[in-house]
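batch job 7 of whatever, protein = UDP-3-O-acyl-N-acetylglucosamine deacetylase
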Amino acid sequence: MKSSHQATLGAPVSLRGIGVHSGKPVNLHLHPAQAGHGIVFLRTGLPHGRDRLIEANFSSVTATELCTVIGDKETGAVATIEHLMAAFSALGVDNVLVEIDGAEVPILDGSASPFVEAIDSVGLVRSAATRRYLKVLKPVRVEKGIASAELLPNSRGFRLDVAIDFQNPIIGKQRKVMDLTPDRFRHEISRARTFGFIGDVEKLWKAGFALGASLENTVAIGDGAIINPEGLRFADEFVRHKMLDAVGDLSLTGFPLLATYKSHCSGHRLNVAVLEALLSDRANYAIVDGGARRQSGYAEIGTGMAVPAYAPDLH
């Protein structure tokens, strides 16, 4: 269901944790922001006491190795933004200043649930400003090997149709279809954790990644079994996490979507690639307000690619 007015947080809220790749502690402060502000990161803790503002949109993506990064290393960047962005998008948060004193959004428990709880703890405040949506007008599809991702017209809201097919029998084939609403995201998607294979850990460590990964924040798949003593939160937690990542990736249009997203064996790389394809031609989309009045499209769209933190795109 579409909401016609922009929303921000009812009060500031803070979280603290470690970066999944750096293993370093980081403080995150979410501040209410005025209408039209969007989601903007304030990167603090940079050398010489500098701060930097980075807009959370498609044109800000600058690096994609193992996570989504906005900004750049030379002037300040923020990595692993996917889960936080998914929570903002799914709960209908349009305007927030995200103050962060480290290079990564904290991984917390590996899902979006802690971010949802933080947002719910302060509630939302709506403004008089009209919310604008990106409405897909024509089907757009990208493929890489057996993997595919597409965006299809859907004037009623945002639907996800996600399928995965891993050779590993612990995961296998899974598919989930749902119309995204705040409540469905809270109860069916937000708690799904990132996952990885024990066999990949040493290689990642040697490359300087996953230094903060643990059984507290990652579903670890070993030789024929789940290593985490508590097991899975859902029988199909893996495809649910792929949905979570897709919600976060696709939010980088800067607008809530009126579309159906359909994917097979996709991941961050193709999620962002399908955005690039969509936004490459103004005939593919329109920007509409709550009254469905057509607005002008983007003047310029940057490019960027993103890949999942642990699980490969292609299976």
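notes: The radius of gyration is 18 Å.
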